[in-house]
Amino acid sequence: MRRRLLVVMTCLGFLSSARGEEPMPVAGKTKAEWLKILAQDPSPRQRTAAVVALTLMTPRDRAIEDAVRDALNDKADRVRLKALDGVAVFILTDSRNQSGTIEAIGKRIASDPAEEVRIHAQEIGKEIKNEDYQRKLVPYFADAMRQDKSPALRAQAAATLGRMGALAKTVVNVMIESLKDPEPNVRAAAAEGLGRIGEEAKGSVPKLAALLKDGDAGVRLSAAFALGRIGPEAAAAVPDLAKALGSDADANVRKEAARACSFLGLDAKPAIPALAKALREDKSADVRQQSALALGKMRGDELQAAVPAMVEAMKKDADKGVRVFVVHSMGDSLGDGLRAHVKDMAEQLTKDPDSDVRLALVQELGALGPAAKEAIPALNQAAADVQLTVRDEARKAVKKVMGKQ
């Protein structure tokens, strides 16, 4: 939307100018003539032309801005649509002192009788980047999310509020109510929006956890997305995320549940058994990859029960991405405990068919230093690897293990 307006302004030679001068005529008519047409002409077509002409006049003055803004209340849909373009130009070219214009756009977002106008108003509103103006638009978007007749516009309003992040914290309760919307797209958009708001949306955790059982997979995915991004307060939903990871029929939902556990880190420790099971058994490589990454964020005694699954995945998983992630996750989560698995890693280094996996093994063995002496033969073999990066890293790793670096 912003790009389209800028292109139009450039092509028509629209430039901001100093105020106080009489605007140049447009299409052979003066400012006063166009103002009269906009105020009095019975033809919507003529009034639309007047909006365009006044928008393009330079230098622009208060009378022009007021007239175009007032045209947002015109009885004709086409005039209101063109007036929205006009006020958008005003904001783009002179963002100062446009509070009244922002509120006028907000009213079109929330209550214009024409869906086409409400759509266009939302498009303009979501492109406004000034944070003060975004705050002014928040309640209007919230009204649209709650009451618009169009499910698509309710969903779009929720998504826009989510993109505003913490600026939309004042309407979190309204967004929570929208989690009960009869349309799945709206529930999904509201859930994702709450996740993007983050910690300020912590009050939504119980409702989001309940949505992990929603009949629509998109809603369940958005609920998992949100829980992973709200922060520590979402720890209460970890058992629900673990259940979704273990039993949801949709692989994308299971993947997002594992990713949520990764974001929650140590707060997701109760999900370790489910993550280990998914790593070992899930049919989706994406789910197994995310489970491996999440296990890499865990620490402590609770992790020990998952180590056999991690070692097994390092050796046997058919997906190279899973094997790479597992190797690095073992290095991240086990710390010094990784030395107990040097033999397994060295053996895998000599036979893994993928260079990315071999590189990961070399890097983690090198990071262990002298504790990985048992892997020296395998590292020496890797120093002659067909892949240059593996060879270079293997030589560095040998020096670290031998205590020479």
Comma- or semicolon-separated keywords:
23 helices; 0% strand; 405 residues; mainly alpha
Characterise this structure.
- This protein is an all-alpha fold.
- The protein is 67% helix and 0% strand.
- It has a domain of 94 residues.
- The longest helix is centred in the first third of the chain and has 17 residues.
- The radius of gyration is 30 Å and the shape is elongated.
- About 3% of the residues have low confidence.
Briefly say what this structure is.
With 405 residues, this protein is mainly α. It has a domain at 1-94. The protein is built from 23 helices and no strands.
Distance between the termini: 56 Å
Strand tally:
0
Query: Can you summarize the main beta sheet?
Result: none
Q: Give the oligomeric state.
A: single chain
